[in-house]
Amino acid sequence: xxxxxxxxxxxxxxxxxxxxxxxxxxxxxxxxxxxxxxxxxxxxxxxxxxxxxxxxxxxxxxxxxxxxxxxxxxxxxxxxxxxxxxxxxxxxxxxxxxxxxx
Amino acid sequence: xxxxxxxxxxxxxxxxxxxxxxxxxxxxxxxxxxxxxxxxxxxxxxxxxxxxxxxxxxxxxxxxxxxxxxxxxxxxxxxxxxxxxxxxxxxxxxxxxxxxxxxxxxxxxxxxxxxxxxxxxxxxxxxxxxxxxxxxxxxxxxxxxx
Lengths: 102, 146
Description:
The structure holds 2 protein chains of 2 kinds. By secondary structure, chain A is of the alpha/beta class. Chain A has helices at residues 25-38, 58-72, 84-93, and strands at residues 2-8, 11-20, 44-55, 76-80. Chain A has one domain (2-97): STAS domain (Transcription Regulator spoIIAA), CATH 3.30.750.24. Chain A contains 3 helices and 4 strands; from the N terminus they run ββαβαβα. In chain A, strands 1-2-3-4 form a 4-stranded mixed beta sheet. The radius of gyration of chain A is 12 Å and the shape is globular. Chain B has a single domain, classed as 2-Layer Sandwich (Heat Shock Protein 90). In chain B, 36% of the residues lie in helices and 28% in strands. Chain B has helices spanning 16-28, 35-56, 89-92, 109-116, 140-145; strands at residues 4-11, 63-71, 74-81, 119-125, 129-137. In chain B, a hairpin with a 3-residue loop joins strand 4 (119-125) and strand 5 (129-137).
């Protein structure tokens, strides 16, 4: 997966590109953790899923892991623009009650 | 309607997950399923194959077999491994249950297979392996009319 990020007004936005599964998750997990650690002081981290073409339950574990890391750093984690399929996976898990959708 | 059959066998390498779900989707695309149905199938196959890699073989190399059969407008999928097997199926299919909590596993794999497919069954023998059976109606109208 490819990632792009921006930081503005206390918000770190991380945009993900590609498929999220068991094979691709370790690299994107490490990259997001690196970005969270390097951007201490932001209030919010928003994971943009608009360009995630496929996501299975690996994505749920990925988001919960980043949620815990962001919490430890005093940041709120949110997601935005999941496609229909990713939204279905996230909805089934009930994750939006923990990680709101923008 | 001509019935059709596909059998895939591949090593339990994580990079084969995309191949497996895309191959199954390509196999049934001839019947013009909706994008939502195709997406459900891909997600369920990915979950089943991931379970083989992560749980059945625990990162060791093993063989995964995916068989698909189209019967009228139904797609039957069978995903099997010869790995360690499941200790307690009833517990394993519960939402959020995972035997690997430290690995950022959501424990939602079986729940997603059950939710996204029309029929779901899992058989497992400890030390011999696991077989997951799933069925999806390829005509969304059939599902709505049931």
